[in-house]
TrEMBL record:
<dbReference type="Pfam" id="PF13516">
    <property type="entry name" value="LRR_6"/>
</dbReference>
<keyword id="KW-0433">Leucine-rich repeat</keyword>
<dbReference type="InterPro" id="IPR032675">
    <property type="entry name" value="LRR_dom_sf"/>
</dbReference>
<dbReference type="InterPro" id="IPR003591">
    <property type="entry name" value="Leu-rich_rpt_typical-subtyp"/>
</dbReference>
<protein>
    <submittedName>
        <fullName>Uncharacterized protein</fullName>
    </submittedName>
</protein>
<dbReference type="InterPro" id="IPR001611">
    <property type="entry name" value="Leu-rich_rpt"/>
</dbReference>
<keyword id="KW-0677">Repeat</keyword>
<dbReference type="Pfam" id="PF13855">
    <property type="entry name" value="LRR_8"/>
</dbReference>
<keyword id="KW-0732">Signal</keyword>
């Protein structure tokens, strides 16, 4: 089962540590993705490339530390991004540039 028609996917409160571009490549209709309260330390470049319909992404309460250039590639329709409580030290130059429609960016409680 590919769950290709999913619009909302909640994976909060699990034990995810790394995200790569294969994880959500079949869920091309996703609009809301909640990954809060995991142990995510690493998000590979182009992880969300197939999720061009995504409107809201919640990565809060993870262990990201660095937001890399290329992580949000393809998210042209994203309107809300929650990166609060992630311990972020660095947001690499132009990493948020692909987010043309971003209306809400939550960066509370980080080290930037």
């Amino acid at each position: 089962m590919t769950l290709a028609r999913l619009v909302i996917l909640g994976l909060a409160d699990n034990e995810l540590t790394t995200l790569d571009k294969r994880m959500f490549s079949m869920q091309t209709h996703l609009q809301i993705l909640v990954l809060a309260r995991n142990y995510i330390q690493d998000i590979k470049i182009r992880t969300f490339q197939a999720n061009q319909h995504l409107k809201f992404l919640d990565l809060s309460h993870n262990k990201l530390r660095v937001v890399q250039f290329g992580v949000f590639y393809g998210l042209k329709r994203l309107q809300g991004l929650n990166l609060s409580f992630c311990g972020i030290d660095i947001i690499q130059k132009q990493s948020l540039e692909p987010l043309h429609n971003l209306q809400v960016l939550d960066l509370r409680f980080n080290r930037i």
